[in-house]
């Protein structure tokens, strides 16, 4: 089924005032990405640089930069002479991203078991788990996802390899919308947190086999939910160029 231009919901977005002390393109990228992940901007939604710029109160240059990054994230597509649209979730991209993310993150935990986790990083991860529990108690799905991202980023950063975190963020972009859909289920968030605890425990014990197995099982959960989410959110999986 082709992507079709739908009534543009950009005007309905809640956009906070820009912080002029921070890069404007970063703020526009973050705002649009969050809206796409929540499906406030659904697949097929036409994104106009002019309208987005007016909504955020920004010139077209930072908007254009934000669009470029969203294309790199796989969240928007631009069709010649037709414009930029929110991309559908691609099952093929999900499977590929999962493969690459699993290879990277299992390697990260194996390295940390080999060289040891620095005390500051261990404290950061422990604090993160406490914050995850509080987010679950409040039903704060957005907060929980940020903490989930931060947990994995800290593990990558702790390896000492500068590119590990950058590669992780890039490769998991294709998975982010699929990851956020089940978070409305508090039990699902609880399972994710328990798996995070198991991963950290194995790293602290320097048990590489247990750590890699725990990380692998954790990351494969997203594939286990794919068929169900595709059935319940079929509109998010539409693909192809927008119709005339």
Automatic annotation (TrEMBL):
Keywords: DNA-binding, Transcription, Transcription regulation
Every HTH gntR-type domain range: 22-89
Domain of life per record: Bacteria
Gene Ontology terms for molecular function: DNA binding; DNA-binding transcription factor activity
Protein name: GntR family transcriptional regulator
Lineage per the UniProt record: Bacteria, Pseudomonadati, Pseudomonadota, Alphaproteobacteria, Rhodobacterales
């Amino acid at each position: 089924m082709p992507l079709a231009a739908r009534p543009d919901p950009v005007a309905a977005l809640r956009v906070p005032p820009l912080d002029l002390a921070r890069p404007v393109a970063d703020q526009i990228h973050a705002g649009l990405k969050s809206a796409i992940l929540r499906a406030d901007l659904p697949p097929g939604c036409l994104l106009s640089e002019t309208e987005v710029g007016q909504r955020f109160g920004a010139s077209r240059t930072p908007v254009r930069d934000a669009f470029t990054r969203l294309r790199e994230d796989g969240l928007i597509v631009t069709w010649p002479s037709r414009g930029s649209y929110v991309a559908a979730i691609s099952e093929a991209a999900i499977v590929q991203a999962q493969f690459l993310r699993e290879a990277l993150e299992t390697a990260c935990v194996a390295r940390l078991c080999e060289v040891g986790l620095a005390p500051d990083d261990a404290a950061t991860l422990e604090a993160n788990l406490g914050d995850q529990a509080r987010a679950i108690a409040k039903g704060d799905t957005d907060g929980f996802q940020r903490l989930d991202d931060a947990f994995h980023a800290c593990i990558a950063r702790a390896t000492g390899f500068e590119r590990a975190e950058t590669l992780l963020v890039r490769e998991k972009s294709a998975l982010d919308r699929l990851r956020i859909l089940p978070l409305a289920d508090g039990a699902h968030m609880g399972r994710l947190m328990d798996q995070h605890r198991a991963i950290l425990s194995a790293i602290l014990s320097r048990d590489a086999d247990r750590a890699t197995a725990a990380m692998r099982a954790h990351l494969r959960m997203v594939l286990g939910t794919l068929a169900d989410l595709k059935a319940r959110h079929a509109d998010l999986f539409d693909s192809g160029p927008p119709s005339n």
